[in-house]
Design goal:
The complex is a heterodimer of chains A (about 280) and B (about 500). With about 280 residues, chain A is α/β, with parallel strands linked by helices. Chain A folds into 2 domains: about 90 residues, Elongation Factor Tu (Ef-tu), domain 3 (Beta Barrel); about 160 residues, Nucleotide-binding domain of ferredoxin-NADP reductase (FNR) module (Rossmann fold, 3-Layer(aba) Sandwich). In chain A, about 30% of the residues lie in helices and about 30% in strands. In chain A, helix 3 links the parallel strand 9 and strand 10. In chain A, helix 5 runs parallel beside helix 6. The longest helix of chain A has 18 residues. The two termini of chain A are about 25 Å apart. Chain B has about 500 residues and is α/β, with parallel strands linked by helices. Helices cover about 35% and strands about 15% of the residues of chain B. In chain B, strand 7, helix 16 and strand 8 form a beta-alpha-beta unit. In chain B, helix 4 packs across helix 6, helix 6 packs across helix 10 and helix 8 packs antiparallel against helix 10. Chain B starts with 5 loop residues before the first helix and ends with a helix. The interface between A and B is large, with 44 and 44 residues. The complex binds flavin-adenine dinucleotide (2 copies), iron/sulfur cluster (SF4) (2 copies) and FE2/S2 (inorganic) cluster. The site of one flavin-adenine dinucleotide (FAD) has 42 residues of chain B, from helix 11, helix 12, helix 16, helix 18 and helix 19.
Chain lengths: ~280, ~500
């Protein structure tokens, strides 16, 4: 059980929560995630990245976007409420060292998982170029936090409502073409964005890490539901990842697998979701 | 055999009981062998295809006493040698003949702490019932005394009459013991160590307890209330439980000793790492490990569509690859989830199938089709990456291999296509490497199984292990047996300390 210590709405359907979880706060490292349930009996187990942690007050921060039933339920939890199931930290931590120049790309909600990794890379002495993007201005998150740690920050929106009007791959390409090409790229966001980031860096030979957000059940390597093809081999995202070499990931297969339950979830969840939103007075 | 209801079976048994009970103390072996084997009452196959309720309903009292009278009470007790925990089988059976069920339970519980689980899931035909004299007389192991069913009968009797007693706990010793994993092995260690007065904490990665008996074996074979009751007993004994706690992640194994003050640890983390075939198309949408399929249905309750949030794939034609209990459970679950056709595809023949006979029989009654001497070669998908067919190969049996089973040999050019939309891979589990990866000092063999000595001690002092993490995917009773040995070692270790 984990108590909600603090809650804040960051954008239309993105929320930040600080949860009481002293053991996880103590052990976690950048790149790791938790799994939670909003109901122990019938709830789904969903993975969320640990966006930040504070050992002193024993708390972790999660940032999530409402996309379906569980994330919606979660958005209804308030300060003082208890989240029934919280387990972590899961996954392999990001390998942090001084690479030189690192370019980090965060798209949409992917900016949240990028933040702790960028922070750790900065602390390790890397020169940090950060590119963050969203569909539109309202969906952009953590700009101030990213500005604080970046040596250079590039903000873009798909519709040009804020920052540069571009997809994140455009500035990424420019960065790769500079005189000093980056030593490492990290791209986190929707699978399609990560796929194209990897395609962008490939011709320049810039090693590119991606953090995969497959469907999970247990998160401990027991079910194989999170498996992806990396370099032709099946890897389990929850224990072998979540980070992999983006040039070796079979994104098309991963995207197909992410949609495994789409028809069912959209039918079953949508009706229930709409009903519930009505009952609970809608999202703010 | 046509389906017979519990009422019919019970009525028949009543007639037999009236005949034999008055002469129960004078029954000669030649009388006993004339008593017909009591069939297990079960849910009507047509009805049970649509529900998760238990299939085997359990003997009625009359049936149990009649079945018990079949036992020849052999002096040399060959059956006892077949039971991994050496229950005094003829003795508990005699108590059933005498109608003294409490004494029967007491005999069983001396060595088996979880009889209502073992009575249901032990592969009796290769354990206690294999060497049974009665089976030998008939040259048919299926005609042995139904030891498991009798064990289940008395365990259920104890629960239903509310007579389950809480084992006595000795005064506190102040020493702490950690149990990692709440499968059968862990539960047994918890009980045995707690009885000696040590403080016991179970750490479980999942949000519910019971290990494979909860997330793997379906309700229709082992209802959750049976497991709940065992856990309830442990709680009443004062065992502490930490759920959602992954050792190796939430806390390192050695930190339990070095930082948290535990004097000893038992590792019973099971064999939870699903094997795949390594064939083309295995990552398509619609291919699942049995672990995932069953976990979604059981633990996450996806069977209850509309109630549970966790979805499960909607299938029309399902192929299950494998021939063990896990394959049977997956196939039977698929039937219950509404699949129109379910095929079990197995490389060898029915004789070599490792699944319990009862499960195979039940699966057939439920309309599952068995494809023996066949195996998947590759899986095909449509333009959306969803499974739409499987290419198979035919096999024949060749020379026996190391395990003594005849090795399946592929027949060249025997490829054929099977139309399916779902493939469930149930070919076994390796050991979950989470703990050994994060505790490199812990010695494991090449399959990742933790290496232990004859006292279940690992390569690290104060750390013991048992169950599937040591044996590889095995059975509930073997996991329990190892648990009891480990508990004895832990109790011995702690007894000799300050
Ligand atoms: C390691 C990891 C870290 C993650 N970190 C974050 C994070 O920090 N913040 C955040 O908002 N989200 C994160 N996600 C994604 C998050 O887990 C999903 O958004 C969530 O599971 C959706 O649950 P739901 O019940 O609300 O939606 P559902 O009703 O289950 O699904 C709604 C839609 O989302 C899709 N979907 C389902 N599961 C996932 C998934 N695991 N990833 C992506 N799409 C999915 C479905 O296909 C469906 O179209 C992470 C995922 C992983 C694997
Ligand atoms: C579908 C299926 C059907 C089966 N049918 C039968 C049958 O009919 N008869 C029979 O005798 N046997 C059967 N078996 C086998 C039997 O269930 C196992 O042999 C037995 O459960 C092993 O017990 P265990 O205690 O060693 O491990 P498990 O039951 O596997 O329990 C291990 C527990 O440890 C937890 N864990 C793992 N890692 C960690 C960690 N790092 N930190 C904390 N907790 C952790 C797991 O979540 C799990 O709860 C079946 C198995 C399956 C999968
Ligand atoms: S524990 Fe299993 S093997 Fe032993 S007597 Fe009972 S059913 Fe038979
Ligand atoms: S071997 Fe069979 S008949 Fe003989 S005592 Fe055991 S159960 Fe009874
Ligand atoms: S989530 Fe089950 S193996 Fe990764």
């Amino acid at each position: 059980m984990a108590k909600v210590l603090f809650k804040k709405q960051l954008s239309k359907d993105v929320f930040l929560m600080r949860l009481e979880a002293p053991l996880i706060a103590e052990e976690r490292k950048a790149g790791q995630f938790i799994i939670l349930q909003t109901n122990e009996d019938v709830g789904e187990r969903i993975p969320l990245t640990i966006a930040d942690a504070d050992k002193k007050d024993g708390s972790i921060t999660i940032i999530f976007q409402v996309v379906g039933k569980t994330t919606f339920d979660l958005s209804l939890f308030n300060e003082g409420d208890n989240i029934p199931t919280l387990v972590g930290p899961l996954g392999k931590p990001t390998h942090i060292e001084k690479f030189g120049t690192v370019v980090g790309v965060g798209g949409g909600i992917g900016v949240a998982p990028l933040h702790p990794i960028a922070q750790a890379l900065k602390e390790a002495g890397n020169h940090l170029i950060l590119i963050i993007g969203a569909r539109t201005k309202e969906l952009l998150i953590l700009e101030d936090e990213m500005k604080e740690i970046a040596d250079e920050l590039i903000v873009c929106t798909d519709d040009g409502s804020y920052g540069r009007k571009a997809l994140v791959t455009e500035p990424l390409k420019e960065v790769c073409e500079r005189n000093f090409k980056p030593d490492l790229a990290i791209a986190i966001g929707p699978p399609i964005m990560m796929k194209f980031c990897a395609e962008t860096t490939r011709p320049y030979g810039v090693q590119t890490l991606v953090s995969l957000n497959t469907i999970m059940v247990d998160g401990t390597g027991m079910c194989g539901g999170c498996r992806v093809n990396v370099d032709g081999k099946a890897k389990f995202v929850c224990v072998d990842g979540p980070e992999f070499d983006g040039h070796k990931v079979d994104f098309d297969n991963m995207m197909a697998r992410l949609n495994s339950y789409k028809d069912m979830e959209t039918i079953a969840h949508k009706c229930r979701l709409e009903e519930e939103i009505k009952r609970k007075g809608g999202l703010k | 055999m046509s389906f017979r209801t519990k009422e019919e079976l019970s009525k028949e048994a009543k007639v037999l009981l009236d005949k034999f009970l008055p002469i129960k103390d004078n029954l000669k072996p030649k009388d006993r062998i004339t008593i017909p084997l009591q069939e297990m009452p079960s849910q009507d196959p047509v009805v049970r295809r649509g529900n998760l309720d238990e299939v085997a309903l359990g003997y009625t009292e009359e049936q149990a006493r009649v079945e018990a009278m079949r036992c020849l009470q052999c002096k040399n007790k060959p059956c006892v040698a077949g039971c991994p925990v050496a229950i005094d089988i003829p003795l508990f059976i005699q108590h059933i003949v005498d109608g003294d069920y409490q004494s029967a339970v007491n005999v069983i519980k001396k060595t088996n702490l979880l009889p209502s689980i073992c009575g249901r899931v032990c592969p009796q035909e290769v354990q206690c019932q294999l060497p049974c004299t009665l089976g030998k007389v008939f040259k048919d192991v299926d005609k042995s005394v139904s030891i498991g069913r009798l064990e289940r009968f008395v365990a259920d009797w104890e629960r239903n009459t509310g007579k389950v007693s809480i084992p006595e706990v000795k005064p506190g010793t102040g020493k702490k013991v950690a149990i990692v994993g709440s499968g059968p092995a862990g539960l047994v260690v918890a009980a045995d160590v707690r009885r000696e007065g040590h403080e016991v904490t179970i750490f479980e990665a999942f949000h519910k307890l019971g290990g494979v008996t909860r997330y793997g074996i379906p309700e229709f074979r082992l209802p959750n209330y049976v497991i709940d009751q065992e856990i309830d007993t442990l709680k009443k004994m004062g065992v502490k439980i930490e759920k959602n706690y992954v050792i190796g992640r939430t806390r390192q194994l050695l930190d339990l000793i070095n930082k948290d003050g535990f004097s000893a640890i038992f590792v019973g983390t099971g064999a939870g790492l699903p094997m795949f075939m390594g064939i083309e198309g295995e990552s398509l949408v619609g291919v699942f490990s049995a672990n995932e399929y069953l976990t979604r249905a059981n633990l996450m309750r996806a069977f209850e569509r509309g109630v549970a949030d966790t979805p499960i794939y909607k299938s029309k034609k399902v192929a299950v690859l494998g021939g063990g209990n896990v394959a049977m459970d997956s196939a039977r679950m698929a039937v219950r989830l509404g699949a129109e056709k379910v095929y079990v595809v197995y490389r060898r023949t029915e004789v070599e199938m490792p699944a319990r006979k009862e499960e195979v029989a039940h699966a057939k009654e439920e309309g599952i089709e068995f494809h023996f001497l066949q195996n998947a070669k590759r899986i095909f998908g449509d333009e959306k990456g969803k499974v739409n067919a499987m290419e198979c190969l035919r096999y024949e049996l060749g020379e026996p291999d190391d395990s003594g089973r005849r090795r399946p040999v592929v027949i060249p050019n025997s490829e054929f296509i099977m139309e399916v939309d779902t493939v469930i891979v149930a070919i076994g589990n390796n050991s979950n490497p989470l703990i050994s990866q994060t505790t490199p000092e812990l010695k494991v063999n090449k399959w990742g199984n933790i290496i232990v000595d004859e006292n279940q001690k690992t390569s690290i002092d104060r750390i013991y292990a048992g169950g599937d993490i040591v044996l590889g995917a095995a059975t509930v009773i073997l996991a329990m047996g190892e648990g009891r040995k480990a508990a004895a070692s832990i109790n011995e270790l702690l007894k000799n300390e300050k």
